[in-house]
Design a protein that fits this description.
Order of helices and strands: HHHHHEEHEEHEEHEEEEHEEH
Bound molecules: ligand MTE
Radius of gyration: 19 Å
Number of strands: 12
Helix content: 10-25%
Number of domains: 1
CATH superfamily: Oxidoreductase, molybdopterin-binding domain
CATH class: Alpha Beta
CATH topology: Sulfite Oxidase, Chain A, domain 2
Largest sheet: 7 strands, mixed
Distance between the termini: 47 Å
Structural class: alpha+beta
């Protein structure tokens, strides 16, 4: 029970602890909490560096860990919470491949050695029209990229999720069958300048706790100005490539999901508008902001690009 105590130390977290345990119920939670990966997520000095926008309120731990998209564990929002108890996020290693000096397989501990974990509060906007505000912990992906030393012709990165059908029941559903709509493993990609942007993080925890399985333990991407499907979970490979790599959703359904996937209220999804969103926990929909509200920081990456064509 030591970890519960550490949550109570800072006043920011007091409310979280109570609501989390009351709402979700102890048993479900204990079964989905993985063993501690990194003590720094429970650091008593833990503080958020980022200030919330006036109009934003943090979603609580229960919302963030019970309403998820992680098709490897099933297609319903509660499936990842219910079905991820057998997933083992430790030990973990990541394959580094392609146009990069430091190719090889690295233990997670070695990959993130010497890297300081920071606290980031980001909005996550899903293409289906909902959003959350999440206090992530992680570090800029750029720090890892610099350590790995990409070659000059590495223009894009591709990321891959682990393939373990024995632990991930959704992966037993074959692609193109009624309940199997995605090919495995899940892959995603970023252009090198997007990957190097300081807002792009690899996350290892949230709310002062190691990532739970349903959120992509032990290592997932978070790209706050793009639709949530870019934020690939449980990463086992990072590939440095020259050409735009394939990404799961834009391969399966290119008409509905583009490679760029920038949050854009002016480009509708073919089946629904993207102009508004429902913040989980709120009733009234709110207008969606260009680049999910991170335009000042990231719009220069797309200067001169037609964002209707490159959606
Ligand atoms: N990563 C993998 N491997 N599989 C998935 O199904 N879903 C994506 C993304 N990463 C997904 C994934 C989608 S659609 C969203 S909206 C976010 O994860 C949701 O992240 P969260 O459940 O932590 O909020």
């Amino acid at each position: 029970m030591k970890k519960i105590k550490s949550y109570e130390i800072t006043s920011e977290k007091l409310y979280f602890n109570r609501r989390f345990f009351i709402k979700a119920g102890l048993t479900g939670i204990l079964s989905s909490i993985s063993s501690k990966l990194y003590s720094f997520h429970n650091n008593e000095e833990y503080r958020f560096n980022y200030k919330l926008k006036v109009n934003d309120k943090l979603n609580d731990f229960n919302e963030i860990t019970t309403y998820n998209n992680f098709y490897e564990f099933g297609m319903d929002k509660s499936d990842p919470y219910k079905n991820s108890g057998n997933f083992k996020p430790l030990p973990w290693s990541v394959k580094i491949e392609g146009l990069v000096e430091k190719e090889g397989v690295l233990n997670l501990e070695d990959l993130i050695k010497d890297i300081t974990i920071e606290d980031r509060i980001y909005r996550l906007r899903c293409v289906e029209g909902w959003s959350m505000v999440i206090p992530w912990q992680g570090f800029s992906l750029s720090k890892i990229i610099k350590k790995l030393k990409p070659l000059s012709n590495a223009k894009y990165l591709q990321f891959e999720t682990v393939y373990r059908p024995e632990e991930m029941p959704g992966q037993k559903k074959l692609f193109n069958t009624l309940r199997g709509i995605l090919p495995w493993p899940y892959v995603e990609g970023l252009r090198m300048d997007e990957a190097m942007h300081p807002l792009t993080i690899l996350s290892t925890g949230l709310y002062g706790h190691d990532l739970l399985n349903q959120n992509g333990a032990p290592l997932r991407l978070v790209v706050p100005w793009k639709y949530g499907f870019k934020s690939i979970k449980s990463i086992v490979a990072i590939r440095f490539v020259e050409k735009e790599p394939s990404a799961t959703w834009s391969t399966v359904n290119p008409r509905e999901y583009g490679f760029y996937s920038n949050v854009n209220p002016n480009v509708d999804h073919p089946r629904w508008s993207q102009a508004t969103e429902r913040r989980i926990g709120e009733f009234k929909r709110r207008p969606t902001e260009m680049f999910n509200g991170y335009g000042e920081e990231v719009s220069h990456l797309y200067n001169g690009m037609d964002l209707i064509k490159y959606y």
